Amino acid sequence: MLLLTPSLPFPSISVPTKFLRLKSSSLFLIRSSSMDTPQPKKVAVCGGGVIGVCIAYFLSKNGAAVTLIEQSSIACAASGRAGGFLALDWCDGGPVASLARASFNLHCSLAEELNGPQSYGYRPLTTLSVSVTESSLSSSSSASNQTGPGPLPSWVDGPAKSPRTIGSTSSTAQVHPQLFTKTLLSKAVNEYGVEVVIGKAERVELAEGKTRGVVLEDGREIVADAVLLALGPWTKRFSLLGSIFTIYGIKAHSIVLKPKEPDRITPHALFLTYYPAQGGKPMDPEVYPRPTGEVYICGMSAQAEVPDDPEQITPVPESINALKRVAASVSSHLVEGEAAVKTEQACILPCSEDDVPIIGEVPGIKGCYVATGHSCWGILNGPATGAAMAELILDGHASIVDLSRFNPTRFSSARKK
């Protein structure tokens, strides 16, 4: 078996183990070891994105022997190319509300435990809704057209109007998603013994309807008491799931810019209503300055086929050019020449057929679990998904979040009607 401990671009973190306390005062407790503790439960987690890594982290922290299986590299797909935006209450009123709130609070606790501001760019944000019309070229018009509770930050000097605060530093925040995922895995590997195997999971090995491990494409078998499939849009390639639910992919584009004067860019996330110069339907791109001095801009999303290899996902040039025009319209600091284009990229977000995450044990297969379908909220909802799945696998039920709404059996019930 090839065991790989990832080489990360920052030192390993050594902090005292502590409880993770939610604002609701509920606790996710760490099991204590004793002389009569049975052999740890062996769990194979398939998928090295944020969902799989969060599950591996909480499982291993609570005593499981975890093997993380990843086809390519850690956070190589959406978890490495997402915006990393976090919101406490933006999912309120919907099925994901409790998951999002619990996860936002866990992000706060993890940032304290893992030195998040320095390790992976965790910080609170003020978030604004802004209207931008590309055809208006005068930056001075932005000031005269402003309405709402306060002015735009000075770096937003393009044709913007109608600014509105939609998130405060107590309700919205950000992380660098790739660094967050790798920091969490580094902690799990170095302190809780998670093993990382690079290989393509081919099938779940079963015996009398019960999971016994995972077989890789090269024939290696990872023996496990439980298997967790957290492969994002690639989860659908497992035939045992195809008859239960459908996962499809949304391809989203993004660019990362490095302004010449990064200190001028304040921590304000922008959610835009953007009217292109040529007319047509308005777009809804998003702008996230990062504490690294970079500015991340995303948008231009559409349903797309999922390639076999995450490394095969390439951006559409027209979509990248549209995002560059968005950047130039928002700020003179983000015009090419004033800002270097560091990255042009695309990723595929996993979406379920009812747009609700799928989290739970696979019907009819004891010991086989799935966690996918988080759409654009995967980075936000990773920690609570991980904590809840660890409880479900180790204790038989989750207490941190009620998972019944996310159970894959809901699709079986719907198809019988």
TrEMBL record:
Disordered as annotated region, ranges: 138-172
Which SUPFAM superfamilies does UniProt cross-reference here? FAD/NAD(P)-binding domain
InterPro entries assigned:
FAD-dep_OxRdtase (IPR006076), FAD/NAD-bd_sf (IPR036188)
A Pfam family hit = DAO
Show the GO cellular component annotation of the record: cytoplasm
Q: What's an example of a GO molecular-function annotation for this chain?
A: oxidoreductase activity
**Signal peptide interval:** none
Q: Which ranges carry the FAD dependent oxidoreductase domain?
A: 42-392
Task: Specify the superkingdom.
Answer: Eukaryota
Q: Identify the keywords attached in UniProt to this record, alphabetized.
A: Oxidoreductase
> Would you tell me the protein name for this molecule?
FAD dependent oxidoreductase domain-containing protein
Species annotation: Capsicum baccatum (Peruvian pepper)
Supply the source organism's classification.
Eukaryota, Viridiplantae, Streptophyta, Embryophyta, Tracheophyta
